[in-house]
Design goal:
This protein is an all-alpha fold. It has 5 helices and no strands. It has one domain.
Length: 85
Amino acid sequence: MDIGKLLNMVRSIPKDKLKTDAGLKEVIRDLGKKVGKNFTDKELNGYVEKFRHMSRTENVGSLLNKLSKKGVSAKDIDSLKKRFK
């Protein structure tokens, strides 16, 4: 998926939905539908738990590092860095 398209999807998420588990589930469910996936309640709960954990423990630098380890190209990571500045 194009990084720009992904960032636009993320920007379109209302911040108030990220404050509650129900809002997070709705956001994850909607994003899944956009890419052709349907999640079970168990999967949604797992993703919400991961999001909560990451929001407490991660920062932009550590997330970019993880993306590079997952195979995101250096060009895409440089593009992300510029957008976060």
